[in-house]
Amino acid sequence: AQSVTQLGSHVSVSEGALVLLRCNYSSSVPPYLFWYVQYPNQGLQLLLKYTSAATLVKGINGFEAEFKKSETSFHLTKPSAHMSDAAEYFCAVSLLSGNTPLVFGKGTRLSVIA
Amino acid sequence: DGGITQSPKYLFRKEGQNVTLSCEQNLNHDAMYWYRQDPGQGLRLIYYSQIVNDFQKGDIAEGYSVSREKKESFPLTVTSAQKNPTAFYLCASSPRGTLPGNEQYFGPGTRLTVT
Known about the structure:
Chain A has no helices and 11 strands. Chain A has strands at about 5, 10-15, 20-25, 30-40, 45-50, 55-60, 65-70, 75-80, 85-95, 105, 110-114. By secondary structure, chain B is mainly β. In chain B, strands 2, 4, 5, 6, 9, 10 and 11 form a 7-stranded mixed sheet that branches. A 4-stranded antiparallel sheet of chain B has the order 1-3-8-7, with no helix packed on it.
């Protein structure tokens, strides 16, 4: 079964520093991949989605992610962290075939230090 | 405005009581989902429904029940059989069922506390 692994349950960066949140998938066939953000006590909001059209995907709030098939990775980045980026981030996967719900990683909590 | 509503935002119950969480969507989406979220455990799928009057168990269905009598509504009942019901519950929907690549849209969640 497909799965995603998010390396690091908690990442802390300084305001203005690079944000890098890691996600690796396990699938022999490149899947569809998603990043979601969750602010405290709220639902999840879609940041971006990989659909095989382009390996570099741009999302909302200045985030982007790059699909690397050779590394089975879909890491999320932002050049300069803002205090408002503090939240929990989830990577999710959907296979190209089949008919099943998204599978979510366990999440990475991002803290931004002033 | 189109979206997913969950009510109430906070819910308190005594142990041994069943409780029903509401989820309504006006997005005309086919599929709806219920997830449970606990600290450090990510999202765990409880039930999902791809069409009216049909639903499937997720990874942690024991102690929960659902119904899908209308396309826009997917209520979740937490029964007294659920051993540890205190959690944050999220409802989601997706426009084209569970077809590959289909993103899910989430409601604001209900925080259930059972004492």
